[in-house]
Amino acid sequence: MVWMELDYAVFVVACVAGVGALSWWLRRHPGRGRVPASAWLLIGSVVAFGWSFTEWAGREERQRLESMVQGFAPTFAMEMTRLGHADIRLDTPPDDPKYLRMIEAQIRWLAVNPKIADVYTFRRLDDGTIVLVVDSETDYDGDGRYVGEREARTAIGEVYEESYTALERAFSGIPCFDDEIVKDRWGTWVSAFHPMYDEDGNVEAVLGVDFPAEEWLARIAAARWRVIGYVGGLCGVLLAAAVVVTRTRDELAERMRMQSELVRARDAAAAAAAVRGAFLANMSHEIRTPMTAILGYADLLDDPSVDDAGRAEAVRVIRRNGRHLLSVINDILDLSKIEAGRLEVEPGDCEPMRIVEEVCSLLRVRAVEKGLDLEWSMGGQAPRRIRTDARRLKQILLNLVGNAVKFTERGSVRVVVAMGGDDESGRVIRFRVTDTGIGIAGEKIATLFEPFMQADETMSRRFGGTGLGLTVSHRLVEMLGGSIEVRSEQGVGSEFTLTLPVSAEEAADLISSPGELFETPEGEREEASVDRVSLRARVLLAEDGEDNRRLIVHHLRRVGAEVETVGNGRAAVEQAVAAVNEGRPFDVVLMDMQMPVMDGYAASKELRRVGYGLPIIALTAHAMAEDRARCLAAGCDDYVSKPIDRVELLRTCARWAGRHGHRAAA
Question: Where do the H-state alpha helices sit in 113-192?
């Protein structure tokens, strides 16, 4: 029972841990109170005294149980002697009346003394073997039945193989109690033993009384834990009193601290509100400015006094401002998707030099309008292909180069692409964008990639912009496994370096000049110009928006397509199936995903369910990767996002038109 003495050690360890945790917490929370040294001394004294009291309680309970169990043994032994136990021999038959009376007596004693688990008798043979003599049925589980070998009556003369000091002492005529736990086939016990005498006064047998060891240990442990509980409660009261006293004393300091925190919180909230207000004002400006131009020039188109040149200029202005408005919305949506963890990158093989060439070509017109020189070059060898998300890489470079053009009034913008890194495991490709613009103050660089922040509060007034582009680009670069570095000097210019990882395989296929890439065959490409697209096909357009419907029909009929329209998914299903049955199937079905009666998802699933096998192209304003996957899962073959890009729409339709055999038709 050495483990039982560890309970107080466990209690002391718990006290030390608890007090240590409380002390740490109080140190971490000024004003919550503290425990003075005098309290520690008093608590230590209580804990020391508690150990002695706990030991005393355990000993008292052990002695009480020992007296209780051992007190039964003499009475049982006398009764067995009176019933003629000395006359029982190893050859006594099991139906002997005297033997049966002893069995019945044992059963009766156990019934009226439920605290005792078992009672039985031992005898030592001449050869020293110890055997059981009288051991009745015992209902250990208390279910009123005697089931199994454990509860059955033990046969006269069964050898008992265990031998220990207390039993030997009883055979020598000394009543004793053994608190050493013994385990046999009947269970685990502590036992009392009492000698039984024959008519000549010799020890002829020993009577044993068993008490369950589990209950023995549990009762002693309970007595000890009661004391431990009292000690713990007293320590808790002392600790609480000490903390309350010191907290009362420190309450004024705590209130002052809280007041200071409230002031700081108020200032932080005011600053956040100011940033939010500035952003909303800037965003309102960025949205209303192009909307004003779009609506104003749309009115000019409706003015009969405007000549053809004026109308052409109005169209260019509307298109330019519409694209700007779309870029503002895309920045906001991209940031919200990133913050929500829903923006995904789609890695694939791409040619980084082609992407740089496309970006510079797109922005060169804007640079020329400002009188800037925008060029790109290779600063050494670079990989022919890398594996990354080409669309996101282009978006990042458009932002970096576009910012360079925006914030440069005179001079040039240069883009240099080259390999970096000393070994294959650390090789990267670097896109370095350098300008001779206004530059950025050193203390402002740290906030460049924070949402809604620009290097100067006057930037949005002078140059426009939402302050989201660099934030989105920075997050995208991290998702692609790369990084962005900034070096800038106010009034001199800035240099942004985009770095992306390169695999060993990609690093093995290098080019030294752009000519090596652009002179290589590009394979089978899409139509070089949409003006040469000829779409001699029947198209079913399912679109509930009247304006969108007219616009899409105009683009399709302009390249020769025969177009029929419906306003909901149910009508699209009926029209497409009817056309197949009439022998004039549609070459392509353009299916808007958001429609009344039946949406495009349900309509596409229904068409595939009935066996419709011709191309279905989804039209949707949802532009995330999971939206494309949802369209394809519904049965669509391809995907065109809104707002509709005329070139993408016509190329997609041309690619799928005429593929009547790509599925089994209805």
Answer: 148-151, 165-171
